[in-house]
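BUG: 3D viewer hangs when loading the predicted structure for this chain

Environment: internal workstation, default settings.
Expected: structure renders.
Actual: progress bar stalls at 90%.

Input used:
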Amino acid sequence: MNKTIIIAEAGVNHNGDLALAKKLIDVAADAGVDYVKFQTFKADKLVSKSAKQAEYQKKNLGNNTEDSQYAMLKKLELSEDMHNELLAYSKQKGIKFLSTGFDEESVDYLESLGIDLFKIPSGEITNYPYLKHIAPKGKPIVVSTGMATLGEIEDALNVLKEGGASLDKITVLHCNTDYPTRYEDVNLNAMLTIQQAFKIEVGYSDHTLGIEVPIAAVALGASVIEKHFTLDRNLPGPDHKASLEPHELKEMVFAIRNIEKAMSGNGRKEPTESELLNKGVARKSIHLKQSVAAGELLNISNLEMKRPGDGISPMDLPKVIGRKLNSDMEAGNKLEWKHLL
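Structure tokens produced before the viewer hung:
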């Protein structure tokens, strides 16, 4: 099994504060993820001033709810200077910087920063000109599919392929766009449906509150995991409440790396070297339940199965019953073939 790419989604959990964004990078680097990801957009290009907030945004913002998405998002923009600082700080911390561009101009800007893959968010999967713009750029593409049907995923992949993107450079992430996602709504097997339908690399972008589902996704074959994180779920903002706190992010990474080890075998059912050391101790052999004289017939009443397992296997009991001993033996002795006539 190849190493799972783990993307720690800082998103807009920096709340527009550069110092907070750097602390998020610290947390991601400490957890050992592969990428720390932010979001690149201009509110003026992303949303109309009359667009209402999503229900989860209203709920998560509580008493701080603004009248529009625009007012909320305007506060969460990252300037070019902030991008440059965060990119440099990520390099300093030994973690790859990534961001999702929400429009063509943002995508081009991120390309100019040298990011090594493009992340298409769920909301843009039906954005034909956006998909056409990313397709010919030649970099790996990760596509989230929250709210999408299988047909919409197919349409998006066709646009990307027709625009010049190679299918073997695309990873499709199963996703549910609710923050937080109820476990009943995860439908994790849909990730496998996507894989089977398009013969493509798949992964999972998670919005549940725990770490169990992304771990399960890795066991099912996810090659990319994306997960929101925050410094504190009680901070104000639309995504904090559906994000992992630092210790949880670290636990998730630790568990995923262990799952990778557990999935790395050859798939054959055979004892490992470590098991062979225990085989003789854990299995049983045929022993004498009572003392038996030479020439006396062995039967089920004078035999018993006990550890250790380095004598005659209980599976050979039919071959032992009816045989005789070549000398007297005391109860408790382990039988060996040399004892039998």
